[in-house]
Structures are given as structure tokens and as C-alpha cells.
Amino acid sequence: MTTLTAPDLLGQALLDYHGGRTTAALTVHCNAADDEPLPAAYFFRTLLQMPALERRALDECRGRVLDVGAGAGCHALELQSRGFEVKAVDVSAGAVQVMGARGVRTAARHDLFAPLPAGELPYDTILLLMNGLGLAGTLEGLDRFLAHARTLLAPGGQILATSSDVSYLYEDEEGALVLNLNGPYYGEVEYTWTYKKQTGEPFPWLFIDGALLNDAAATAGYQADFLDEEEDGQYLVRLVPVGLAEADNQAI
């Protein structure tokens, strides 16, 4: 019996772009917004092409770095150039292939909840950029990730992540929020990729407002430090597990 798997549309687009098809672009379908094109070129941006929040996040990295949802490896390559030891992971096999071809020294196919491989040291920084907290999918998934991340972090380790408050999508013409209070959290959305007339399987994505993230972090035993925010509601946050930070201080 043959097992059918969803096409790796992101990987196909990245491989096409890396192979010279510079116009390669996915179409992003979202149940909360209009369809949008996503050029593959965006995953290959240089430091100067990165948003300010991403550049700030790279400046805040320390120690051994786990770059989650690494795409084509633009952040991992920049950190490598600064002398960091980086492991870049993505669920897309094509993305991992592209990262290796571009010079990312350690790239692997893992998802957000993959355990630390036997013999692998924990990390000082977990990096989740491009609205990276969205990989958790749902509020429940975020709680699960925050618990899991403790097993990936060294004492004194940190999570550096970006997300957005998308409440503006639910404003009426007068600017008032129109929300279904009996429905799911407004930041839990569903995405689908289309590329070369192929459509992938829907996947959940989480956009979480800062206040709710702060509450979730506190419940999970993290200290949240919001480092920067942009006008469109995007922000960069540092999450430090309180227990790990205290253990590190005691060791000193």
C-alpha cells in the first residue's frame, strides 16, 4: 500500500529559486485574510534586506543557536559569519537541501517538537523568526512548545521569537473589534500554500498578542522581555525559563 504525502511546496519553490528561477513565488491562502504572493526570494534575503526586528534578534543571539523554521538559512548563514555555532532545522526537506547547498554547516529536517538527539548538547538560544511562534499552531501548541523548549535549552538559555497582534484584521470601518467570543482565539488561523498549480495541506498558524503571550509565558515559568515592536503590531520577545536562569545563577 502506497502512503501519499503532502507535496513539499515550500521546498520546491526554494529549490527552484536556488536553481536560478528567480521569479518563483508561492501563493499564500489564509482563512482570515486575502490571498498573497510570497516570493521565494524573501527566504534568501541578506542582512541589509532583513526587517529591523530580525536584525535585532540576530544581535541578541548568544552561545549555541538552534534556528527553528530556518527556511533557506538566511539567519543561520549570517550567524555563522559572526562565528556562532548554529543548527538550522525545518520541516521542509527541500529547504534543508537548499541550506546545505548554500553553506549552512548543520541543517536537519525537524519540526518544532522534535526531541534533542542523543548526545547533542542543549542550546543557549532558540531562534524563531518570520512570525516564528506561529509554528506552534494554536494556543495549546504554544503551551506544549514552551514546556518542550526547556528540554532544548542550556541553563540561562533564551528563546528569541517574533509574532504579531492581528486584531486589526477584525476591525470594522470605525475601528472597533468585531470578534466571535464563542469561537477560537482570533490569532489562530489556517494557511495553505499553492505553487505550480499544486495546493498543499492546510496547516494551523498562531499570531499571539503580547499580553496573552506574557500570560502564557508566566504560566509556563518564563520571564518575557519584549525587546522591540513595529507599527504593524509585530514584536520581538525574549523568553527565559525562570528555573533555568536561577539554576545558572546559583552555579555561578
From TrEMBL:
UniProt cross-references to Pfam families, sorted A to Z: Methyltransf_23
Molecular function GO labels: methyltransferase activity
Domain of life: Bacteria
Entry keywords, A to Z: Methyltransferase, Transferase
GO BP term, example: methylation
Gene source species: Hymenobacter coccineus
Name of the featured protein: Methyltransferase
